[in-house]
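Lab notebook, bench 4. Still working through the backlog of constructs that have no structural model yet. Next entry is a single chain of 538 residues. Request: give me the structure tokens for it.
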Amino acid sequence: MPEASAPARRTYDVAIVGGGHNALVAAAYLARAGRSVVVLERLDHVGGAAVSERPWPGVDARLSRYSYLVSLLPRQIIDDLGLRLTLLRRRYSSYTPDPADTTRGVLVDTRDAAATAASFVRTTGDEAEAGRFAAFYDRLAPLARLLFPTVTEPLTSARSIRERLGDDRLWSELVEHPLGGMVRGALATDLARGIALTDGLIGTFAAADEADLRQNRCFLYHVIGGSTGDWDVPVGGMGAVSGELARAAREAGAELRTRVEVESVTPDGEVTLAGGEHVHARLVLSGVGPAVLARLLGGSDAASAGSAETAPAGGAQPEGAQVKVNMLLRRLPRLRDERVAAEAAFAGTFHINETLTQLDAAHAAATAGRVPDPLPAEIYCHSLTDPTILGPDLRGQGAQTLTLFGLQVPHRLVARADRDAARSELLAAARGSLDSVLAEPIDDCVLVAPDGSPCIEVRTTADLEDDLGMTSGDIFHGPLSWPWADDADVLDSPARRWGVQTEHAAVLLCGSGARRGGAVSGIGGHNAAMAALEILDR
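Model written out:
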């Protein structure tokens, strides 16, 4: 009998495990520099969480099913890679009904300061709160302008950033003490304090005064994007972002392989795929989370893949803390607040049951093992800013998308329960929270698909783990890090200087688990590519 043929083996300069948006950024940069690159993705498409999909059969709506806004994607990456993207700025920053009287609410209009001030007075009764609110964010502006350009550069030390900022009080309040103190010191009303605090709780399970400052780090990333903190709408949805990145990578010569399961990675760059194929590379870049990489390397936890420098919160394990409800509506619902048009309220971030007191109470409830009641939630309507994600018939009918992002829902609440039961409980909580500010039940506005099913879906942390391989549904792949180096850090290699190191010289982080990773930014991919080029050029 003839001998069985040996599994195929191919050699590259760089193999990238996982095909999310950061992996595509890294692949594009490396291929443009003339390096041979292969991206290995287990799904049938690349893009990871930054994709658009049609969740309901027969319904011409392309939703950003997981991630949904762009803030941290640097213009430098867009320009370097020649991405053809249109990002639209929203006029209305936020709308926040008063939970004590939902017939009134604060509408922050970026084009009309007087209207914003009147809204604060009408809702809070405090004539000075609008000024305090504006001053709070104005105070952060110099830090955003200073810090954001550094995220695509080698790491700068904390001491250097602090000296360049020249505001020791701000540094102390934001970097050394819990965010709750800063928010309470700057704002007088529970409502305004909650609006500010929510930026520290997106995908992060924390109270306002959490001692490990995880909420501070999350807050910082949310207010520095683009040097302004603005969150933009990608025309065409998130699929347009990942589609452009894939195009740039392919046109540069990168090989993008889908439907390939990576079974293991060795510290010297050997990647084994399901079926026995071996891919060897001088460097392996990991677009999957550190916890997943650890398993591929043969370890049991994230600590065996990363280091204290990539997991500053004491090596804490990943845990997502959100639920996402995607909806397609026949029309926008009517609000209890008759002074605010639904088209304005839903165009920005619509905060529901998110006073500081409510956010902390929700954290306490979830810590005790209960789904928060009421559920703090944020609503966003992509189609008001970008109707192209809907087919012509839906646009003509006045249909609109609606995304609800529930906070303070740690993975432990979902992991302990039956998946379907957990979805049902969270959907009920989301409906109840949303209905509390509406003049009609949201279910009366939900569009029905041709098969008779309502156009509504729930994506829990368990779904993110199952569908995208995000451990415990953690959208940041683990605790966020400060976007600078600790003063004691030894930056003695390209990987360490760029914040993408693991314990193994031939394995780098390129996803959200890298220092300065998280959100739809491409920063982790860019920085891994820069480190890789330095290493390969030696």
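Notes after review: The domain at 9-50+71-86+236-315+478-536 is CATH 3.50.50.60 (FAD/NAD(P)-binding domain). The first helix runs from residue 21 to 32. Flag for follow-up if needed.
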